[in-house]
Amino acid sequence: MTWRKTIPWSFVVFRFLLGPALFLAAREPAIASAWMGVMIVAGFVSDIYDGVLARRWGTASSALRIADSGVDIVFYLGVLAALVQRHWPAIHARLGLIAAVLALEGINVLVSFIKFRRMASYHSYAAKFWGFLLAVATFTLLMFGQGTWLLTLALAWGIVNELEVLAMSLLLPVWTPDVKTLARAIAIRRQVLARQSERHIAAG
């Protein structure tokens, strides 16, 4: 494996390890919340650059995209666990929103595996914005103990993002990575169905 493949994969593995590390750090009172804030920023940056570098170097693959999406779940569960440990009142007040996000994520994983036999990997603009909002909200809460409204906003946007993912999975006839918007998913569906119709007419 060349270094151009190794570096994006290293970012994915790094973020995978950060999830449990955040949970363990939050359980230790001696570890300052500021360090966990730094870890969240590092995870967010790695989430950006694993894809950016892989596409720039031509080393993006289905395996990398799927691993990236799966690791995001592990990382943000670690973030949630850290917030539960350090800021339970803020989490308790938003349990309904958190439950909705987690339930929709579970539904999306199930739908994707039933329909495509693999995890969806759309990396949409809505998902990127959700990652940004979540990073800012959790960083602000851990570092300064403030900004709970940002957490509410991030969770609400998370629900919007999960609904878009579900709509994409239901619309797309075949597994397709890097679908940036719902409009793009609709366009891909039309293209695929048009090609299938043309082949059916030619075969008939």
Report the radius of gyration as a whole number of Å. 19 Å
The stretches of 5 or more residues where confidence is low (pLDDT under 50) are none
Tally of DSSP β-strands:
0
Report the β-strand fraction as a percent range. under 5%
User: Distance between the terminal alpha carbons, to the nearest Å?
Assistant: 46 Å
* Global geometry: globular
Instruction: Sketch the topology as an H/E string, one letter per element.
Output: HHHHHHHH
Average pLDDT works out at 92
Q: What share of the residues lie within helices?
A: over 70%
Number of helices: 8
Derived from helix and strand composition plus strand pairing, the structural class reads mainly alpha
Largest sheet: none
Index terms:
single chain, 204 residues, mainly alpha, globular, 8 helices
Describe this structure in words.
The protein has eight helices and no strands. With 204 residues, it is mainly α. Helix 1 packs antiparallel against helix 2, helix 2 runs antiparallel to helix 6 and helix 6 packs antiparallel against helix 7. The longest helix has 25 residues. The termini are far apart. The model has no long low-confidence stretch (mean pLDDT 92).
SSE map:
Blueprint (H helix, E strand, L loop, with lengths): L2 H24 L6 H25 L4 H25 L1 H5 L2 H22 L8 H20 L3 H24 L10 H22 L1
Structure in a nutshell:
The chain has 204 residues and is an all-alpha fold.
